[in-house]
Amino acid sequence: MCVRVGQPCKFTLIIIGPFTQRVLLTLEEKHLPYDMKLIDFANKPEWFLKLSPEGKVPLMKLDEKWIADSDVITQSLEEKYPDPPLGTPPEKASVGSKIFSTFISFLKSKDPNDGTEQALLSELTSFNDYIKENGPFVNGKEVSAVDLALGPKLYHLQIALGHYKKWSVPDSLPYVKSYMKCLLEFQTIFSMVSFIKTRAQPEDVIAGWRPKVMG
Ligand SMILES: N[C@@H](CCC(=O)N[C@@H](CS)C(=O)NCC(=O)O)C(=O)O
What we know:
Blueprint: E1 2-6, E2 13-15, H1 18-29, E3 37-40, H2 46-51, E4 59-62, E5 65-68, H3 70-80, H4 99-108, H5 116-134, H6 145-164, H7 174-179, H8 193-198, H9 202-214
Parallel strand pairs: 1-3
Antiparallel strand pairs: 1-2, 4-5
Helix pairs in contact: 1-3, 1-6, 4-5, 4-6, 6-9
The site of glutathione has 10 residues, from helix 3.
C-alpha cells in the first residue's frame, strides 16, 4: 500500500489522505494484514510513476497485481474478502458524495460571498437530514463502505476548515456533529479503533492542505 510522505524541513510528514485512509480502514475492518510503502511526493520514484502514471496514492498490490484508485481497491477487497461484508446498498452509495468537493471549494475560496460556504452547508444539511432518519451510520446500525469513505473526508474537513477558516459544523446540524464525534461510549466512525489507528495527525492534515489554501 503506498502512502504519501514529504520532508518540509527536518521532520518527515506522513500524510494519510482521505482516499488512503479509506483503504486502510477497509483493510483494518476486514482484519487483513498489510504493509505500507512511503512515497516522497516531492520526488516521486520511477517505479511508483510506472505503476501509477497519474502519480496518485493509494496504490495497492493485491495478488501480485498493482491497483490504483480507492473505489477500485475497496471493491476488489470486498470481492476477494467478503467477510465481514462492508458493502453499502447501491441506492445509498452516493449519500454525502458532494461534501468533499464543496469542502475543497470553500477551503480554497478567498471571497466570503462567493457561495462556497453555502454550497457546503447545503450538502451537510442534506446529510444531517439523512442521518437523522436513517443513522447512526449511512446504512443504519452497521458501518459500511460509504462511512469508511466519508469519515476520512469529514475528518480532513473538520481539521482543515477549523485551522484555515476558523470554521466548524454549526450547532444547527446536530446529526452531522454526532456522526463526527469521537467519544468512546458513542458508536461513531471517528471513535472506531480502526479510525483512530489509521487517521493522520492533525498537524499533518494542516500541512497537507496548505498548498491548496495558498495556491
Ligand atoms: N480517485 C482517487 C483519488 C486519489 C487522490 O486524489 N490522491 C491524492 C492524495 S489524497 C494524490 O495522490 N494526489 C497526487 C498529487 O498530489 O501529486 C482515489 O479514490 O484513489
